[in-house]
Amino acid sequence: MNRMSNDDDCYLAAVGAGADPSGVPWAELDPAVLYTKRSSIKWARYSADVLPMFVAEMDFAVAPIIRGALQRAVEASDIGYVETPAPYAEAFADFVEDRWAWRLPREYVRLTTDVATGVVEALRLAPKGQQGRLVLSTPCYPGFFEMLQELPFEVVEVPLLDDDTTALNLEAIAREFETGATAFLLCNPHNPHGTPFDANELSALARLAAEYDVFVVSDEIHAPLTHHGATFTPFAPLAADAGALSVTVTSASKGWNLAGAKCAAIVAADDRAHSLLDHLPPEVLTRTSILGVHAGIAAFTEARDWLDLAITQIQANQRLFKALLREHVPAVKYTPGSAGYLAWLDLRGAGLGAEPAERLLAEARIGLNDGRHFGLGGEGFARLNLACAPDTIVQGIERIASLVSPATQASLTNIGGQK
């Protein structure tokens, strides 16, 4: 084998035993195969000649324990309305105490269909009403801009400090709080960078929110996917200590690939937030899918080993992707995150013009998330999904290289002796 770099070593490490965290062989997760079996956004948006590496859906098979829980519920015809969050709250509270030392009163946990709904419904309860200003740290998850259209907040974008450290710009946030902002929508770990914010900056944010009476809604959907060796700090305990009004919205959907199961948690930070959530409409609970409740309970209690295997695979995929970029497409800049499976690509030096994601789709037939939709700081970037088979990553690099570094594209065909 002709080695040009450590590509082959990274490839073999990512391939591992030849299967995903559920034991499904990598060959069965080839995009050409998945196009024939799945019908979600990832596989329905584009024609089969496009390599879909955009939306935050894993290619990995759902954990067998979760599939079993769903099958048992269907066989029992337990597909009615949800009455209480109690069993889910118990499972979730045990998980967060075990993983992050967050001691959470069970009654603080409410249920809703998904994180987007939880964010909107929580913000509807903003104590100062909905005519104020809401602050976002950008670039951030594009869905925030869509869901906030349901609310009459003025949205203010405060860019992160820079592309590498992805720290909160606390000075700029403080200025917005001082001049009348009423709410802050936190994304922790941050999407698209994959950064769990540092406890010190989160504590500073909590103190600012308490000082200026700003309501903080924290989206922590990617938290279960915090990488081995990294630290995630939930915002709620810090908010409670500082006296800031805050709720957390999260779900098992990203960690265990359950977005379509439709179940998420809205969690109060303290008694004051708990009383605020008493005003949620009853439909917020009853619209939750009972199948999502069953899936989430199984995830938080019995599928933790699967999650750990998935994180290990994601980190191996991340190393493979970084090595391939450095060797074959050095014009594309990438700083690996330490949570989740999303790669935030700086394409500004790649010679693809003002709309690089559009060119990559049209000419290289690879689907990425366009950075322009992530708000200020996103132009010239694109987001790519690494929760896939290692060969899919190699295919993605091949397609990017076909536009950015066509002279090196051929060398990719020898990686691992597989292509």
Can you put this structure into words, describing what you see?
- The chain starts with 6 loop residues before the first helix and ends in a 15-residue tail after the last helix.
- Helix content is 39%, strand content 13%.
- The protein contains 16 helices and 13 strands.
- With 419 residues, it is an alpha/beta fold.
- The protein folds into 2 domains: 7-61 and 304-417, Aspartate Aminotransferase, domain 1 (Alpha-Beta Complex), CATH 3.90.1150.10; 67-302, Type I PLP-dependent aspartate aminotransferase-like (Major domain) (Aspartate Aminotransferase, domain 2).
Count of the separate structural domains: 2
Helix-strand pattern, N to C? HHHEHHEHEHEHEHEHEEHHHHEEHEEEH
The CATH architecture of the largest domain is: 3-Layer(aba) Sandwich
Discrete helix count: 16
Find the CATH topology of the largest domain. Aspartate Aminotransferase, domain 2
Query: How much helicity do the residues have?
Result: 25-40%
Give the C-level CATH assignment of the largest domain. Answer: Alpha Beta
Write the CATH homologous superfamily of the largest domain: Type I PLP-dependent aspartate aminotransferase-like (Major domain)
Largest sheet: 7 strands, mixed
Evaluate the radius of gyration.
Answer: 21 Å
Helix/strand-derived category reads: alpha/beta
In the predicted model, the low-confidence regions spanning at least 5 consecutive residues are none
Question: CA-to-CA gap between the ends?
Answer: 13 Å
